[in-house]
Each structure stands twice: as structure tokens, then as C-alpha cells.
Amino acid sequence: MNERRNFLKTTLLVASGLAVAGTALGKGKNKDKLTTFPGIIYTTNDPGMWDGKAGSHAPEITVNGKKVTVVTHHVMSEPHYIVRHTLVTPKGKVLGSKTFYPGKDDKAISEYEIQDNISGKLYATSFCNKHDFWVTEFNI
Q1: Using an 8 Å Cβ cutoff, are 113 and 69 in contact?
Q2: How far apart are alpha carbons 90 and 81 in whole angstroms?
Q3: Backbone torsions φ then ψ of 108, nearest 5 degrees
Q4: pLDDT in tens, 21-72
Q5: CB atoms inside a 10 Å sphere around CB 104
């Protein structure tokens, strides 16, 4: 189990940096759809093959000053759970992350204090062990 978790942690750190750094949002009518990694990264507006799953997989963001709370409204049972949240800048810098453990964490909630020099667009990621990698864009 530890080897799997370490693999997931490493994979998610690399993927979050590469994916967010390389993500391009479409223009016009598709402006909310990810165009660089279709079928790999999912959003509320582009759930791909996971249509109907966004409400329990896309991270929900609350900003209160420089405090960011990320919540994924998802079950946290051994066979199906949120593995990790990550907070990332558009250039791929990881500002914070939290790994969750079924049986230990009842809810997928993480909190981050953002430095005063950070503002503008950020991304929160949520990784489900069955329904892949989800991203929510927000501003601070």
C-alpha cells in the first residue's frame, strides 16, 4: 500500500505541474473546456467520459482573504476515495497539497494559506482513485 501511495504522490506532483503548466483553455464557445489534455483532465464544464460525476469529483473552492479551502464532496471508503488535492499556479508551481487516506480521512478537505505575493488565477486539483484527475480554476 505504501508503494502505491508513493507512486501516486510522485505521479500527481509531476502530472499537476505538467498538466496545469501545459493546459490551454479554449476560446469562444469552448472557452471553459480544456483543450491540451482532453480525456485526461476533467472539469465541471468538461467531464468527458465521467458525465454526471463532476459534483462529487471537481474540487469546490472557497476563498476567504488569503485562505483557500478545497473540498471534494466524495465518499471516502477504501474501494473509492479522493487520493489527493493539489493547489497549483498557472506556471506549474505547487503551492500546497494534501494526501487523503480512507479510514483516516472522513472528508476530502484541505486548507492553504496563500502568500501575499500570489494573486490571480490558480488551479485546484482532485484525484479520485476511480474517476481520474479533476481541475477547478479560480482567482485569488
Answers
A1: no
A2: 26
A3: -95, 85
A4: 444 444 334 444 455 566 789 999 999 899 999 999 999 999 999 999 999 9
A5: 7
Beta strands at 41-42 and 132-139: parallel, antiparallel or unpaired: parallel
End-to-end CA gap in the chain? 36
**Nearest partner of 121 among 92, 97, 96, 98, judged by Cα:** 92
Gyration radius of the chain's alpha carbons: 14
- Give the single-character DSSP code of 12: H
**What are 99's three cell numbers?**
494526501
Instruction: Give me the residue spans of the domains in the chain.
Output: 2-139
Quickly count helices (H) and strands (E) in the chain. Answer: 2, 8
Helix (H) or strand (E) holding 42: strand 41-42
Angstrom distance (rounded) from CA 47 to CA 19: 16
CATH fold, domain 2-139, is: Immunoglobulin-like (2.60.40)
- pTM for this predicted structure: 0.75
